[in-house]
Every structure is written in structure tokens, then in C-alpha cells.
Amino acid sequence: MTNTEHIIKMTDKNTSQIHVLIEQKVDIWLHYVLFSPLWWIAASLTIIPWIFWLLFRPRESTDRLMYAGFFVMIISLVLDVLGDQYGLWFYRFNLIPVLPTYFPWDLTLMPLSIMFLLQIKPQANPLFKALLFAIATSFIGEPFFAWMKVYVLIHWHYYFSAPIQFCIYLVAHYISRRTKFSKLT
């Protein structure tokens, strides 16, 4: 057996085992999580804040804020998947069973919190806002979801998140201030 054939065999076996575990996860989700109170909370936290934002956003800043918000969504999803896959944390009561992320956090709460901070007092020091965001998300938001038994820390501590959240806010702030787009022709 060649090295390539050995790698293919190991990878196929691993993928087969993962598929069995995903089927078990979906079965648990269908029978116990879907439509449970914590599932409804997740669904509500994913949808309702966006409705409020659409109604009360500063319309002249929508594109700029969404530009920063999409960056936050992407980076949040990527970091969440990496943390889950490396066994640093995991989520129970997922909105969608096969995705190892908590949609309300990654697609709503993180981006909307940053978008809100970007639009409120736009001339305020971004370092202060980044610090406020990092403290709120790392030491209030994460412990709250852990208390609800949704977020389970394995090899992670809340204070590890603070510098990451700080940097995410600063990059989003930078992105939201970009003005150099060429005209479409």
C-alpha cells in the first residue's frame, strides 16, 4: 500500500466516523433541541434584533455599517468553528444542528453590537469602545450563555476572548471608516 492509499484509507474512515456522529447529533437535535425553550430563544435572538435594527438604523449609514457587520459575522463564524473543532468550547441548543456555531452570537449579537457602537457617538475614542465591547462580550455575554447552559468552555477562559473581541471591534471600526471605493462603470 502506498503512502497516498494509506492517507486515503485513514481519511475515509475518519469521515465515516464523523458522519455517524453528525447523524447522532441531528437525531438529538430533532428529538430534544428543536422547539425547546432554548431553541426558541436562539431563534428569537437571531431574528428579532435584526428587525429592530432595520427599523431604527441610520439609513444614510446602512452600507457602511453592513460592511463592518459582515466582516464581524465572517470572523466570528470562522473563530467559532475553529474553537469548536479544536475542542476549546462547544454549544448545546444550536439553531441548526450541523453547524458548530451559535448563530445568535455570530450572526446577530456580535455584528449588531459592533454596528450599534459604531453609530453611537462616532467621534468617541475607538480604543475605549473596543475595550467596552471586549469587556461586555467576554465577561457578561459569554458567562450569560454559559449560565444558560448553551455555551460550554472546555479549554478556554473568558479572559482569552477579551483581546480577540477588542481586535475585532478595532478592525470593524477601521473597515467602517473606509471611503475609497472606485465608481462602478
From TrEMBL:
<protein>
    <submittedName>
        <fullName>Uncharacterized protein</fullName>
    </submittedName>
</protein>
<feature type="transmembrane region" description="Helical">
    <location>
        <begin position="156"/>
        <end position="175"/>
    </location>
</feature>
<feature type="transmembrane region" description="Helical">
    <location>
        <begin position="65"/>
        <end position="82"/>
    </location>
</feature>
<feature type="transmembrane region" description="Helical">
    <location>
        <begin position="130"/>
        <end position="150"/>
    </location>
</feature>
<keyword id="KW-1133">Transmembrane helix</keyword>
<feature type="transmembrane region" description="Helical">
    <location>
        <begin position="38"/>
        <end position="56"/>
    </location>
</feature>
<keyword id="KW-0812">Transmembrane</keyword>
<keyword id="KW-0472">Membrane</keyword>
<dbReference type="InterPro" id="IPR048147">
    <property type="entry name" value="CBO0543-like"/>
</dbReference>
<feature type="transmembrane region" description="Helical">
    <location>
        <begin position="102"/>
        <end position="118"/>
    </location>
</feature>
